[in-house]
TrEMBL record, chain A:
Gene Ontology biological-process annotations: protein targeting to ER; signal peptide processing
Record has Protein transport as a keyword: no
Species: Komagataella phaffii (strain GS115 / ATCC 20864) (Yeast)
Purpose: Component of the signal peptidase complex (SPC) which catalyzes the cleavage of N-terminal signal sequences from nascent proteins as they are translocated into the lumen of the endoplasmic reticulum. Enhances the enzymatic activity of SPC and facilitates the interactions between different components of the translocation site.
Localization: Endoplasmic reticulum membrane
Entry keyword set: Endoplasmic reticulum, Membrane, Transmembrane, Transmembrane helix
Name listed for the protein in its UniProt record: Signal peptidase complex subunit 2
Amino acid sequence: MSGITKPVNLYSVAELRNATDDALPLALSKLGYEQSFSLIDTKLAIGYVATILAGSLYYLEKKYNNDFSNLTYYYSMVALVVGYFALNGLLWLHGKYREKDIKYVGINKNNQKKISIEARVENNTTPIYKVTVIENNRLLGKQDIPFTGIFDEDGFIHIDQLVEIFTRLLQEKEK
Amino acid sequence: MNIRQQLVQLLNLAMVLSTAFMFWKGLGLVTNSNSPIVVVLSGSMEPAFQRGDILFLWNRDKYVDIGDVVVYEVKGKPIPIVHRVLREHKVTNKDRKVRQLLLTKGDNNPTDDLSLYAHKSNYLDRDEDVLGTVKAYLPKVGYVTILITENKYAKLGLLGLMALSTLLTRE
């Protein structure tokens, strides 16, 4: 639960954003949402499989003494290198088209509706947290949250304020 | 901090290392050389190459030419040597396979490389011994690796810095 017990540097937009990203699961659990980890788990799975490929090539290199004239070694090297970069490409596509700016995915315990929260900052000098909430692939609402509204002067994040903002954002659709 | 966040950080570190390694291997496959980039360690090719120059090798030519600078490795001696091809012979084997045999010499050395070759061998074999022909070079940049290989504190320091920076940044 870093970012909640630890103050952040208020002059660093990156730190503010990270702390807010980290606080999202807690804020939404207070609103009755359970976090779904499928996006990050996919990313971890692809990434670690790729790392294992690289690791096994390292092992083969030692085992065969990096001898290119050994065809077993040569063709496993081709396969592992191609596989590694294919998985990296997949990881890139996953990050660009599925994960995008999504910082939180959760399922409402009452009505089983799935929400995704995309959040980003424009650049490192604009301390505004741009939030988009999507419910079951339908745009629910957008809001620009200035970091001054959720952090106090000492750099502590205030979960209650974040909860309040999301309560409003999530209620808008019910009208 | 939750377990997934830590796994992501660890993955980032692993990705930096593994991508560097796989690029190296990929470059090896493209150039068909098991050591496609080497650093000059001795002054035997001065003034063409100085200690610390980085050489880029290419090993897809069937034969090397006289005058080419090649990198070769003698069996049993693990250090690659960068020298110029002085003479060549093409020998046809019984199985009609043509072997190219080479004699090399360092530009800055008084004699040719006969004394450097493997025991009782008076030539290099193009296919078996040569790692590649030098196609491009970057002067002096490789001095960092000489520093790292010859000074263990420099090596540890650099590794430590790399590990720290990947673990601490989250951008």
